[in-house]
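Q: What structure does this chain adopt?
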Amino acid sequence: MKVIEIFKNVYKVNGKLATRNLAVGRKVYDEELIQEGGKEYRLWNPYRSKLAAAILKGLRHMYIMPGSKVLYLGAATGTTCSHVSDIIGESGALYCVEISERNMRQLLELCDARHNMFPILQDARLVEKYKDDVGTVDILYQDVSSRDQLAIFNINSAQLKPGGIAYVVIKSQSISTAMKPEVIYRDFINAISRRFEVLEKINIMPYDRMHLFLVLRKK
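A:
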């Protein structure tokens, strides 16, 4: 079996994307677990995770790494969060903001098994409710289905340290079905350009339609 580390704690196992399992023996969704060399890897499905899709579409700037402190907006049931948890390891911290109580019930079970994950049941628009608990972070990851994605990003980016990295999934159809996606992407980027440098813009087709994956650095 061929295992290649492509980023720190991110692998290709027989050509398929994977992370090393922080909670050995436990699955999070329907992913396959693979044993090799005394280690356990979890295959990472790009149709279930936009970060995985971005990596497979050529992501170059991977700043999520062991020890990273991450604020994750739109954690849902924790599919992508679980892989971020694998990557940052025991020395990292992942703050998972989710508005849905139904999703939170499943996310809580996941956090019980992964001690670097901290669940926050809250509206990401109300950052004042959790900012003191979270503090300053190295990474901001946003994947929310809302018309006001830009406003959510703006208020939460105050938690990001200078020079910190933001990964933002712009969901065009959540913002407007009447506007062309390219216009929505352009307007979003223009609105944040004074405060953020755009490092990458990744179209994640065929894994997701009408989404743009941005990698930004805070100035």
